[in-house]
Amino acid sequence: MEKIAFLGLGRMGLPMARRLAAAGHPLTVWNRTPGRAGGLTEAASPADAVAGAGVVVTMLSDPQAAAEVAGRFTAHLAPGTLWIDMSSIGPRAVAGLRAQLPGGVALVDAPVLGSVGPAAGGDLVVYAGGEDADLDRAEPVLAHLGRVRRCGGPGTGAALKVVVMGAIVASVTALSEVVAVAEELGVPQEEALEVLAAGPLAGVVARARSTESDFPVRLAAKDLALAGGGPVLAAARQVLLADPSIAERDLSAVVGAVRAG
Q: Which residue would you say has higher pLDDT here, 38 or 202?
């Protein structure tokens, strides 16, 4: 099995790296904050981590982090290396990473949908974009992490993830305001959610009620920024940023934090 370098051991990255190690891949990891390897073989730098690796996986928080870390290892990638970026950074940032590739190095964009529990259990949804040959090579690795959806050419996985997150985050944020209006009108929150859950908004209500997800509000706001778009997504992002006290809590915390205006 190919040696893998895994860079980025945050909430999602560490359980994902552990799954690859458990599958038998020789694995070296690196994280911007040292000492979070959890027993995995930890490199001192990104360049050290990618040395001798046939596959490099990055799982970083935002476009700035991805660009900064990429600048520390891209030049050290050997011809024939496959780089799988699983960060949620959008197609524009992925194109920027692709522009840095040395000759003979391939890039697949493969952001994921799911939280910490699915990451540990291999139940993520992986949106993969790239050239067909590169996707063929990446898929056996990605299959250890979840269900792989091949989206098309380079950048399409990153693009679909932005679309999906824009819909989910904006919907939960809108639901939070609907619930606030309900309470102002004398309808208890739980009654409003129960009725909404019986209709077409069932999935949104389930996400808003989740007690197992761990997707910080600050990252949800970041995903809306990646989407750009019009006034609805922009307004949802402003709602998420309005209460700094929930920034590190799961997205579901926005329900109850919003007050009717």
A: 202
The secondary element (H helix, E strand) that includes residue 27 is: strand 27-30
Boundary (domain end) residue, out of 103, 131, 154: 154
In a domain, 259, yes or no: no
Measured distance CA(67)–CA(86) in Å, rounded: 13
- For residue 216, which of 179, 175, 244 has the smallest C-alpha distance? 244
What are 139-182's pLDDT values in tens digits? 999 999 999 999 999 999 999 999 999 999 999 999 999 999 99
Residues 205/193, Cβ–Cβ less than 8 Å: yes
Cα angle value 16/22/26 (rounded, 5°): 90
SS3 109: strand
CATH number, domain at 227?
A: 1.10.1040.10
| Size of the chain, expressed as the number of residues it contains | 261
Nearest residue to 65 (alpha-carbon basis) of 34, 33, 37: 33
Are residues 245 and 145 part of one domain? Answer: no
> Could you tell me the CA-to-CA distances from 57 to 6, 28, 29 in Å, in that order?
5, 10, 9
Residues 6+ apart with CB under 8 A from 167: none
Q: 67: number of CA atoms within 13 Å, CB side? A: 11
Asked whether 99 and 72 are in contact (CB, 8 A), the reply is no
Tell me which amino acid residue 189 is: Q
Quote the pLDDT of residue 256.
Answer: 83
